[in-house]
TrEMBL record:
InterPro entries per UniProt: DUF3243 (IPR021637), Uncharacterised_YmfJ (IPR024702), YmfJ/YflH_sf (IPR038292)
The protein's name: DUF3243 domain-containing protein
Pfam family membership, one: DUF3243
Lineage top rank: taxon: Bacteria
Length: 84
């Protein structure tokens, strides 16, 4: 996983593949976005940013309220889908 986290393009592709897999299993968009939010919380609390893009995401997560974080998680899902 660490090599995936080091490169932002690789990270987006990894996420896109996971979103596609979830959709193939019948997981709906709303549940995928909820899971993305939970993953965002986990990463924020336990993982140090590995690159500039992740540092920006961390700073945005820090200043966002819950609704803004949920929006951000949904946008990350969309970004991931565009990279799968």
């Amino acid at each position: 996983m660490s090599t995936v986290m080091n490169n932002f393009e690789t990270w987006k592709q990894f996420l896109g593949n996971r979103v596609a897999a979830a959709k193939n299993l019948g997981v709906d968009q709303q549940d995928i976005s909820k899971l993305a939010y939970e993953i965002g919380e986990f990463l924020h609390d336990r993982v140090d940013p590995k690159n500039d893009e992740q540092r920006v995401l961390r700073e945005l997560w820090d200043v966002g309220d819950e609704n803004e974080r949920q929006t951000m998680a949904g946008m990350m899902v969309k970004l991931a889908q565009s990279n799968s």
